[in-house]
Design brief:
Layout: H1 17-29, E1 41-48, E2 51-61, H2 63-71, H3 82-89, E3 92-100, E4 103-104, E5 113-114, E6 116-121, H4 126-129, E7 137-142, H5 155-183, E8 185-188, E9 194-205, H6 208-215, H7 243-254, H8 260-271, H9 283-297, H10 303-319, H11 326-342, H12 361-365, H13 369-376, H14 386-400, H15 407-443, E10 466-467, H16 468-474, H17 480-489, E11 514-515
Parallel strand pairs: 3-9
Antiparallel strand pairs: 1-2, 2-7, 3-6, 4-5, 6-7, 8-9, 10-11
Helix pairs in contact: 7-8, 9-10, 10-11, 14-15
């Protein structure tokens, strides 16, 4: 775009850098703005024919517009793999990753909840997807959390209605991707090129209860395979669940059922029933427990019990590797085999049995880890922990910025403002780098020295609790302790007499002997 003098103008729709800075302040404070939106928020109401007055509102964005915004972000132009797909296939395949997770908005008390739906793309590295500041994962919808369903209905009927609302909402939100996945869509990428894109749903990330909800599986059973309730403790998985299998069961029973309750009972006999008895703890708490679990068992439980729990912990930590190959997957399978070879002691009636049986879905789920890693990559690509941080940015902060009355539209508006500012700043940074390159070309400056070198300091020490003498020897810095004393002394308060006089520093000893480097 050109300004009045015929020159290029990068701050459009703003007149200057100053106008943009004022607009950024106005947007963040909610005063007003004219920054273009990448994906506008919309609303949709759902209701039951039997109760048309009870409306369930979902706030959503067009999933195609969200994909265009993700691929069109200039900050991601160098990181996504779309160029390779476009070169090899003549078009870009966009693996769509969806995640849902209901979250509490109030920290300690109250029942305010939100039901966000997130979307990201497999074309982007998971190191970007896991960082909210990179905006590589976008909130695409807030599902209805209304519980105002007819009081005259039974508990089972209410549960069925809530499940139906969820499936109808997700069907509506993802409907635009069906046509685009079959017949492609045109997207302007961050590098300025227009490419044909085929969005394909590749992965759905959810915790165990929502996996059952999405797969129409009975809570307490495996949502991935057809193992019966008595087979969950076996060392081998059954054949995979398939959409056609579920549809067949529904069609076979819908005609012979006399009521909703009878229909559900008939479906359960075919779709497996079971139960799960595990307390709800967070991922951080579970990891903290795992760190001390094995030490608590040593000397207080039979060696075979210790071996059994050791195998589980080995499996858990190997599954969290940031990279895998055939060897690490073999280690994973060996740890699982060791657990199954020794787990019988946990149900041995001759001892004090821990449980009557081990038909627990989460134990059974370990059978599917190796295949999931082969299909989708390392587990940090699709674990639920990454979305706990997104809840803060996309739900809780927006709720705190609202007046707590009809808060969801306000949360959506607040989030849209933050995204607009972040996306425009990303565009300006990209535009600035292009200007620098163009200026260097016009000035005839060539980079004859290759890539720029710099000093990079890691955020976390790689060697913990190292003796000072060892550090001085390994790093060839015999005066390290002497200079460290001078460095630390400058942070002490001189006016209060905490700092040591310089004349005495040469005889001062450090109060510690080890340091992490």
């Amino acid at each position: 775009m050109e300004d009045g003098d015929g020159g290029s103008h990068k701050f459009v729709p703003f007149a200057s850098d100053l106008d943009w800075r004022i607009a950024r302040w106005a947007v963040q404070e909610g005063i007003g703005h004219n920054i273009p939106s990448h994906a506008k928020w919309k609303t949709r109401e759902l209701w039951y024919k039997s109760d048309p007055d009870d409306k369930h509102t979902i706030h959503y964005r067009d999933s195609k517009e969200v994909i265009s915004a993700l691929l069109g972000n200039p900050a991601h132009a160098k990181d996504n793999t779309s160029e390779w797909w476009n070169t090899v296939q003549g078009a870009t395949l966009a693996p769509v990753i969806i995640a849902t997770d209901k979250t509490q908005l109030m920290q300690y008390s109250g029942n305010k909840t939100a039901y966000p739906v997130y979307m990201t793309l497999g074309n982007l590295p998971h190191s970007l997807r896991q960082r909210p500041s990179q905006h590589a994962c976008v909130l695409v919808a807030y599902l209805s959390v209304s519980k105002s369903i007819g009081q005259e209905l039974t508990k089972k009927h209410k549960s069925t209605c809530i499940q139906q609302i969820f499936h109808d909402s997700m069907r509506f939100i993802l409907e635009p991707l069906k046509e685009a996945g079959k017949h492609r869509m045109e997207v302007v990428f961050g590098d300025g090129y227009v490419r044909h894109v085929y969005p394909i749903l590749a992965c759905y990330i959810a915790d165990y209860p929502e996996q059952c909800l999405v797969m129409c599986a009975k809570y307490g059973t495996c949502p991935k395979c057809m193992a019966s309730e008595n087979d969950l403790g076996k060392s081998e998985a059954s054949r995979r669940q398939a959409q056609q299998t579920t549809l067949t069961v529904i069609k076979d029973n819908i005609g012979v059922s006399m009521s909703l309750s009878n229909f559900q009972d008939c479906c359960k006999q075919h779709l497996i029933s079971g139960w799960l008895e595990l307390s709800q703890v967070s991922g951080k708490e579970r990891k903290d427990m795992a760190r001390i679990l094995l030490g608590c068992l040593i000397g207080k439980a039979p060696s075979q019990v210790v071996l059994c729990y050791c195998a589980i912990l080995d499996f858990v930590y190997i599954a969290q590797y940031s990279s895998h190959d055939d060897n690490t997957l073999c280690y994973l399978d060996n740890a699982l085999k060791l657990f199954h070879d020794n787990k019988h002691i946990l149900t041995d009636p001759n001892l004090v049995p821990v449980r009557e049986h081990l038909n627990i879905p989460k134990f059974h789920a370990m059978l599917h880890y190796a295949q999931a890693i082969q299909d989708f990559g390392t587990t940090d690509n699709y674990n639920t922990e990454m979305f706990e941080r997104f809840h803060i940015n996309c739900a809780k902060e927006g709720w705190r910025a609202s007046n707590f009355c009809d808060e969801v539209p306000q949360m959506a508006q607040w989030l849209a403002r933050q995204e607009k500012v972040a996306m425009f700043e990303s565009y300006l940074k990209h535009y600035k780098s292009l200007d620098d390159i163009q200026a260097e070309k016009e000035a005839g400056i060539e980079d004859v020295q290759g890539p720029k070198m710099g000093i990079f300091i890691s955020k976390r020490p790689s060697a913990l609790n190292q003796p000072l003498a060892s550090v001085q020897s390994k790093h060839h810095c015999p005066s390290f302790s002497h200079h460290l004393i001078y460095y630390l002394n400058q942070f002490l308060n001189h006016s209060q007499g905490q700092a040591i006089p310089k004349s005495q520093l040469h005889s001062t000893q450090l109060p510690f002997h080890n340091i992490s480097v």
